[in-house]
Each structure stands twice: as C-alpha cells, then as structure tokens.
Amino acid sequence: MNFYWNNVEIFHCHLSNNKKPMNNDCLFCNQEILKKEEVMRNNSCVFLSSKGYNPEGVLEGAGVIIPFAHKATPFDLSDGEVVDMFNLLKEVKKYLDEKYEPSGYTLGWNIGKVSGQITPFHVHLHVMPRYDDEPLAGKGVRHFLKQKSNSRIKEVRES
C-alpha cells in the first residue's frame, strides 16, 4: 500500500509495540503499513517518509513523526514522548540534510478537523523539507492562514 500525501488523504500508518496502547481501527497503528514506509525510529516514535518515490505534489523527503501510543493531540503526549519525538526530529533532520540538502524546513501539527487533522485522530508531526526552487518557496504555514479569503466574519459585541 502506498501512502497518499495530499490535502484529502494524508498518508496514514503507525506501529504498535506490546507496551503501548493501540487502536485497531487506526491506520497509524497498522504494523504492516508501517514497515513499508519506516525510515527510522526510537523508543517511542517512528519517522515515515516516501523512501525513494515522490508522490505528486509532495516535496522530496517529506514525512511524519508518529508516536507509538495512540493519542489524539500533542497535548496528550507524556513529557517523555515529547522528548523522544524531538530527539527523533533532530536525527531526521540530519538524515534529510545529508540525503536531500534542503534549504529549510516546515514543521506542523494539525489538531482537530478544523485544522486539517483527519481520522484517525492519531497525533503526528509533519516534517517538510523546503527548497529554494520549489513553487511555494518563501511561503510558510501562515501564508495561507493570512489570506483575506480566510477571514472570519465576527459579530460586533456591544459592551
């Protein structure tokens, strides 16, 4: 199974070990899927990436760091899981720097449907190498959120 990396279907998979909670309905908890996309792991999380193929619309090396424990948001992670994710992120950066030589990085969490987190609600950190020659170079996460078309209509409250 290949993973889809677009706005509708973010690639899904994950691992469980016998010591961590697992949700059988969660694709991020599926051991078989994980094996196909795993690049590296540590004690409590794994980095998944496209490993050699570049799905349409995805920058080379893009992937996600996923904790083994099935938790909905980064706010639900233990201090140890947060430290392990950050430590793996540093190793992932070394790997991506050596393999792809990106010009920068965009990192992101989507929390809740309104921000783009789709079922399963299994926390994952997006790691996106960025390149000077890409069409959206210089456009970070906030670029799209700051567009006039994204403005909310607010009622004026009387005090």
TrEMBL record:
Stretches that traverse the bilayer: none
Motif Histidine triad motif in this chain: 122-126
Source taxon at top rank: Bacteria
Organism of derivation: Candidatus Falkowbacteria bacterium GW2011_GWF2_39_8
Protein name listed in UniProt: HIT domain-containing protein
Lineage, broadest ranks: Bacteria, Candidatus Falkowiibacteriota
Pfam family membership, one: HIT
GO molecular function annotation: catalytic activity
Domain HIT positions: 61-137
